[in-house]
Amino acid sequence: VGCGAAFYAGLRCGRTILSGFLDHVDEPTYDNSKNDISLSIAIGGATGFFVGTDASYLPDQNFLIDCVGIKDGMSDLTGCAIAGTSTAMGFTTAQTV
After folding, report:
1. Residues 3, 44 contacting (CB under 8 angstroms)
2. Across the chain, what does the average pLDDT equal?
3. Cα 91–Cα 62–Cα 56 angle in degrees, nearest 5
4. Residue 43 has what pLDDT?
5. d(CA 87, CA 60)
6. HEC letters along 22-35
7. Neighbours of 28 (CB within 10 A)
């Protein structure tokens, strides 16, 4: 929730500041606010699932640990692939709900 809210705040501040001197950045409106909220929710889902890759963070409560948990001894490349997969899963899950 925190990451999604911070992302949304950054989008809206960016639109407010940058729309004045960048032609391709739209000013904040109700219509683009709906799109910004949708994107921020998806980013929040992606970061939430990414946290699930940390096998040492609350392992008893981490329901993603068996699916996308990165455990000690895994290669760096495997860890990168699992982290990317978990992020994509979170993004997709948030978009479909």
Report:
1. yes
2. 90
3. 110
4. 93
5. 21
6. CCCCCCCCHHHHHH
7. 16
Q: Residue 70 CB: number of other CB atoms within 10 A?
A: 20
The token duo for 20 is 């004045």
Tokens of 21: 């001197």
What amino acid is encoded at 5 in this protein? A
Q: Are 45 and 31 in contact (CB under 8 A)?
A: no
- Report which of 56, 53, 62, 48 is spatially closest to residue 80, judged by C-alpha positions: 53
Is the pLDDT assigned to residue 55 strictly greater than 90? no
Output helix, strand, coil percentages for the chain, rounded to the nearest 5: 65, 0, 30
Reported as a single tens digit per residue, the pLDDT across 26-46 is: 999 999 999 999 999 999 999
